[in-house]
Amino acid sequence: MRWKGRKSSSNLNDQRNMRVSGGGGAGGGMLRFLPVVFKFLGFKGTAVVAAGVIAYGLFTGNLGGVLGLQQPSGQTKTSSGPIKQSAEEQELAQFVGVILADTEETWQKIFSQQGKTYKEPKLILFRDKVNSACGLGQAAMGPFYCPGDQQVYIDLGFYDQLKNKFKAPGDFAQAYVIAHEVGHHVQTLLGVSASVRKAKSGLSKTEANKLSVKQELQADCFAGMWAYHAGNVRNMLEEGDVEEGLRAASAIGDDTLQRQATGTVSPDSFTHGSAEQRVKWFKVGLSSGQLNACDTFK
Questions:
Q1: Of 32, 102, 169, 179, which alpha carbon lies 20 to 30 A from 232's?
Q2: Order of strands across the sheet with 48-49?
Q3: Of 180, 178, 142, 197, nearest to 281 (Cα)?
Q4: How far apart are CA 241 and CA 43, in angstroms?
């Protein structure tokens, strides 16, 4: 991607120097996912979590981390110190700030065309653990968006997993993750997230999962919309970038993750969509760049 030398977002909040301890107990739940693998998971979500969250916890073996987005029963303590980082990590943090700024430019324009005002989200960089309005977030959960404080949370270590474990390398694959989480913020502003939560009330687990899939696929489509504008309006994309994004979307499809984890696939338990669906809806947003093209609920 052609990102170097571009402006960084003022909404990037680097908290990698903050250390959070404690607060690891049980409490309120997170988005239900992969019941075929973990039938004991039946939480109602307070945060919308990218499919990478699931995969990260599965393939690192840190299931406690996957369960971490919950209201902590114990108190947490926070301390701070200087940010220690490698040159590679420093550049990656700069990259995140630039991509966030570019999503802001995209969605400001789209919202303005709709006669609306885009409220920019904050993006929090953290290490290991972080306090959010949705509870205690942990690195093993991967990137997540919390509608309670309208902030995106990312531990940069996730990108190593994306490259090495999910076989989805490249800066555009990394940007896709950010754009997907920002897509959930767009859903919050448009009222989609609230409508989905309301519609899930009283539904069976299978039917509620279907709504979750549609919500996640729309966030993929919104990520594709960002890519359309980044490439066609601001000429940020290079040859091979789109393929990186498609590879990432496919790598974190529910069927791909279930097959890797158990050797079987259970479509009724999908909450994020199959690899084919995720690729399809990313392409829809990428080819159209239009908000009305991303109505996955029809």
A1: 169
A2: 12-14, 122-125, 151-154, 144-146, 48-49
A3: 180
A4: 36
Cβ-in-10-Å burial (0-12, 13-18, 19+) of 53 comes to buried
Q: What is the pLDDT along the chain (298 residues), one digit of tens a residue?
A: 999 999 999 999 999 888 876 654 332 233 323 333 333 233 333 344 444 444 434 333 322 333 333 334 345 556 566 677 788 889 999 999 999 999 999 999 999 999 999 999 999 999 888 989 988 888 877 889 999 999 999 998 888 888 888 788 789 889 999 999 999 999 999 999 999 999 999 899 999 999 999 999 999 999 999 999 999 999 999 998 888 888 887 777 777 777 777 787 787 777 788 888 899 999 999 999 999 999 999 8
How many Cβ atoms sit within 10 Å of the Cβ of residue 263? 7
pTM of the model: 0.80
280-to-95, 245, 250, 286 alpha-carbon distances in Å = 26, 12, 10, 10
Query: Per the structure block, which two tokens stand in for 277?
Result: 């669906």
* DSSP state letter for 37: T
Please state whether beta strands 151-154 and 122-125 pair in parallel, antiparallel, or not at all (unpaired): parallel
